[in-house]
Amino acid sequence: MKLSPFFHVNNRIAKTVTVLLAIPALLLPAACLLYILFKGIPALHWDMLAGTASAVSFGAIGSLWPQVAGSLLLMLGACMIAAPVALGIALFHALCASARQQRMLLSLLHLLQGIPPIVYGLCGLIVLVHMLHWGICLLTGAIILAVIILPMLVLNTVHAIDRIPLERTEAARALGMRDGQIVRRVWLPAAWPSLLTGLLLGMARALSETAPILFTATVFSGINWPDSLFSPVTSLQTHIFYLAQEGANAQAVNIAWASAVILVALVTTFSISASALRKIRVGG
Fold first, then answer.
1. Alpha carbons 87 and 24: distance in angstroms, whole number
2. What letters, b where the CB count within 10 A reaches 16 and e where it falls short, cover 118-149?
């Protein structure tokens, strides 16, 4: 069947419009990233990375390691809480839920994924900080970040299980394997690249959040390292937020740009690692 010339013209127009609409979406983030590097890299110096930390200078002098460590502790705590829960919910979806329950669960996860993170932060402030009297601490922030990344981890795990060839599961059942054995010996070995990819993206997402931990986990100064799970921490995210408000202090603004470069580098590391894992085929 010969296509009409008008079809080819319309097709070219549609492609051109699509490209024109996509260009700002590509150029604007790239321009922002280049500007952050342009402002932040000159402000980086060795003492900022390896110097002595100061607990009372608001980060205006001394090392940024406490802020880096606080961000990483919050990220790791969130993933340690969210990952087992996400796996359990995904296994319930695959093994126990009816078709109706599966649809309801997926709809709920998509709804939770669309809630602004600041709402979770306010809920954590009311429930965990005030009602349970945990105070502003590492554990409170980790739990709130875990709630934020949980829907993404669950959906990623559900899709990873769905991508496993059905023949493998049927063969395992034919051999008499129980559900637990199928999960351990068939699903997890086959889906681990996708699961790890989702976990790395969850880490990047946890490192990117500021408002939730601003209310629940972090202080601006007075502490270098948390003494326990119920101690507050400092973080790169809130550190940048505070220093950026000191517009009259050129040193503080420069340190904010340098902190932004470090934070972008951490987020990019986890994102690139996740992209590399995507190339590993399920079961590969």
1. 37
2. eebbbbbbeebbeeeebebbbbbbbbbbbbbb
CA angle, residues 148, 246, 225, in degrees to nearest 5: 55
Half-sphere exposure in the Cβ direction for 62 (13 Å, CA)? 16
Give the whole-angstrom CA distance, residue 151 versus residue 249: 40
With a cut of 80, say whether residue 47 has pLDDT above it.
Answer: no
In a shared domain, residues 251 and 228: yes
Check if the beta carbon of residue 187 is closer than 8 Å to that of residue 164: yes
- State the residue range of the domain holding 228: 48-278
Per DSSP, 247 falls in state T
Task: State the residue for tokens 């986990």.
Answer: 217
- Give yes or no: residues 142 and 78 share one domain: yes
CA distance 53 to 83: 32
For 206-261, the pLDDT digits (tens) are 998 888 998 899 887 667 788 889 999 989 988 888 888 876 677 888 888 888 99
pLDDT in tens, 103-149: 999 999 999 998 999 999 999 999 999 999 999 999 999 999 999 99
What is the tally of structural domains in the chain? Answer: 2
d(CA 123, CA 112): 14
Place of tokens 């105070």: 135
- Of 241, 202, 204, 249, the C-alpha closest to 219 is 241
Instruction: Measure the CA–CA gap between 37 and 33, rounded to whole angstroms.
Output: 6
Task: Determine which helix (DSSP H) or strand (DSSP E) holds 99, and give its type and residue range.
Answer: helix 99-113
The rounded distance, in Å, linking the Cα atoms of 155 and 283 is 19
For residues 125 and 58, the answer to whether their CB atoms sit within 8 Å is no
Distance CA 230, CA 224 (A): 14
Residues 76 and 147 in one domain: yes
